Model the fold of this input.
Amino acid sequence: MIEAITYSLRSEQAGNDEEYYQTIRAFTDAWLEETQKTVGALVADFQVWRAGQSLAVRSIGEHAFELLVLGVYLREHGAQAENFPEAAAVLLETLLDAQEELHWAEDVVKTLRGLVNGISDPGESAGKGLVSLERLLLWLRAQGEHTKAARLAEWQAYFNVQQPAASAQALVLCRSLAEDFNRNSMAAFGKYTQGVEKFLKEVTPRARWRYDVCLVTSSRLDYHLGMLGTEILDRAYRQRFLASQHIMVIVPPCLRAQPEGRCQAEQTPLGAKCTGCTPTCRVHQITKLGQQKGLVVYSIPDDQLSKLCISSGQAGSNIGLIGVSCALTNWGAGWEAERLGLPAQGILLDYAGCRKHWAARDIPTDVDIRKIETVAS
Done:
């Protein structure tokens, strides 16, 4: 059994992820029921405000999760956001645009992003009030998290038309949600994220100048947020996904058995398409399942979903997505897919292992193929 670098969904006793999925379903049921009692009135008023702005209808669960995201991000990243220089944030957004346009210079641009990130000194921050929310949105955009920033910006706009006392109380509520979730999720999911603390001790001292510093220094609470987020969004998007005429499965390159230089996948405008060079390769096995079930399978890196959909004309084209990625990135990709008009179902990698973020060498990751088959049915 492969040792987890940060997290693993696999039970040490059974060696599979069945226990995890039972745990996340039960936890989500309880969290939604309890949270609705706490934020129900706030969410109902927010839904009325959104209707007045002609914004798409979303479920109570989605909005409750947005409030949790806001609370967790203020708790975990408020200091980074509040102390990040505005000039650096503007420069990072410019570099992100350049990375999208100049694919041949991606490595150079990522190096420059790391240098600019290194300018920031998180320091200490109270992280309270609307000013911190504004700074948080600025920081998220600087890290390339435009879709997350757009979601939370809706709440910022709503808060701005409320009485100051009501807005301040709502942010206190978000922080309380985050504190409660931190305690309860550690009890429920802590067994799956035991490797995070060791990883952080090793990587944090040398991570400051990395372009992906915010990802690799994520806390256990960030991982737990991702686990809950994927489950909530899967439920929210399920009916629209099932109504899709075609299904596309997106898997990460870290699932392949062969390293980049030896993998014989065919590069297409939609991503890498497996040619079956290694029968034991997980990507090959998922591709075979796709052939049996009428699913199209492509492999793309975790930060190229929007580029894939826009360049290929898939957005809003009655295609549903099954996205496989790690616990930190999956729920954000779900929001991104929805923004592009693609109802998605997320499935978590059983553990993370790619050299791009987590390991000194490529460690092939894994996913429960039965989950893909079940989700597609």
About this structure: The chain has two domains: 18-230, 243-376.
